[in-house]
């Protein structure tokens, strides 16, 4: 029996994007369940991110901080309602109720992580894999 192909979308806010405005941009990496990158995009708006979610219908959209998507819980709830129903939003940096750096989580699952600050694309990629 053949495995059904599933997708996971990792996202991270681009540096310099203002969180207070609705025009921040994201890096997006989409991987399949074999951990292969099937799409990689930069400077994607939130509306484009929602369109991508409907196009790919990922099992999960993974981020290191859900509040990079929305400024508060009410806004986050509204944005979540715009994603496909089968897609979950996952904050991969919460482990046992505590915040853990994404690089530390990646190391725990034996992923190679470069030293220094991660690029938004690399963070998005790690988030997708961890999910």
Give the arrangement of secondary structure elements:
Layout: E1 7-13, E2 26-32, E3 37-44, H1 46-56, E4 60-63, H2 73-80, E5 88-91, E6 94-95, E7 98-99, H3 102-108, H4 120-130
Parallel strand pairs: 1-4, 4-5
Antiparallel strand pairs: 1-2, 2-3, 6-7
Helix pairs in contact: 3-4
Question: How would you describe what is shown here?
Answer:
This protein is of the alpha/beta class and 131 residues long. The protein has helices at 46-56, 73-80, 102-108, 120-130, and strands spanning 7-13, 26-32, 37-44, 60-63, 88-91, 94-95, 98-99. The strands form two sheets. It has a five-stranded mixed β-sheet. Strands 6-7 form a two-stranded antiparallel ribbon. Strand 2 and strand 3 form a beta hairpin.
Q: What's this entry about, in short?
A:
With 131 residues, this protein is α/β, with parallel strands linked by helices. It has helices at residues 46-56, 73-80, 102-108, 120-130, and strands at 7-13, 26-32, 37-44, 60-63, 88-91, 94-95, 98-99.
Mean of pLDDT:
90
Spatial gap, N to C terminus: 24 Å
**Helix and strand element order:** EEEHEHEEEHH
Give start-end ranges of low-pLDDT stretches. none
Reading side by side through the largest sheet, how are the strands ordered?
A: 3-2-1-4-5
Main sheet properties: 5 strands, mixed
